[in-house]
Write a structure and sequence with these properties.
Shape: globular
Oligomer: single chain
Distance between the termini: 26 Å
Number of domains: 1
Number of helices: 6
């Protein structure tokens, strides 16, 4: 929903409501990722994306967990540079471990 932040926030909120009604960890993790990516407050973004990453890890989806870190790194670069750098470091290392070199390189370049 690039360029349509308000619409993206609305869709993320709707996904969150749907995920809460059902016990569906994938839906909850994806919803938190969407809400964290579109959050206005950097503390909220960090909290939601961290929770999303932890849920992804808990259900055995390390690639999605690394994507949460990548989104965290990009989204928090201006407001929380130390947290952003740490997230990008985690993402780059995990992408490398998973054999996704192009994403590892992208995360590493974003740290600069």
């Amino acid at each position: 929903m690039s360029g349509k932040l308000d619409a993206a926030r609305e869709d993320a909120e709707e996904a969150g409501r749907l995920a809460e009604r059902l016990h569906y960890p994938v839906g909850k993790a994806a919803s938190l990722m969407a809400k964290g990516t579109t959050a206005e407050d950097p503390d909220d973004a960090l909290r939601m994306l961290t929770e999303s990453r932890e849920l992804w890890q808990g259900i055995g989806r390390p690639l999605d967990a690394a994507i949460a870190d990548l989104l965290m790194g990009h989204g928090l670069a201006d407001q929380r540079p130390d947290d952003a750098r740490a997230a990008l470091d985690r993402a780059a290392a995990e992408f490398e471990r998973l054999g996704v070199a192009h994403l590892s390189e992208w995360a590493a370049k974003a740290r600069v």
